[in-house]
Amino acid sequence: MVTALLYLLVMAFVGAMLFLAASAVFGRSEELTPLPPGTTLTALPAVGVTGADVEALRFQQTLRGYKASEVDWALARLGREIDSLREQLATVEAESDDPGDAR
Q1: Which of 82, 13, 87 is nearest to 48 (CA)?
Q2: Could you tell me the superkingdom of the organism this chain comes from (predicted)?
Q3: Residue 49 to residue 77: CA distance in whole angstroms
Q4: Sheet strands (E) in 1-90
Q5: 3-class DSSP state for residue 40?
Q6: Can you give the pLDDT at residue 94?
Q7: Angle at 46 between CA 71 and CA 89, to 5 degrees
């Protein structure tokens, strides 16, 4: 019984070492290299966010996905940009519907 337990422990140890070696060699199958801890590439322009800016967003990866604070910041920033654009659109539409417009 002790021999079987010893074999099981050795197999678990060897399996863990093989897993760690494969993880170190092949990484996590990411397209981008991992960011150093505590840094981020998450950035958006102050005004005039474009589709290319959104596509270029990169978030720091954590154990179970992306860093929530960075995703929350990006979503809030995009929300403000959408609100601003809708406000500008409403202003332009209101000006074009104005009956006193001399155009």
Answers
A1: 82
A2: Bacteria
A3: 9
A4: 61-62, 65-66
A5: coil
A6: 92
A7: 100
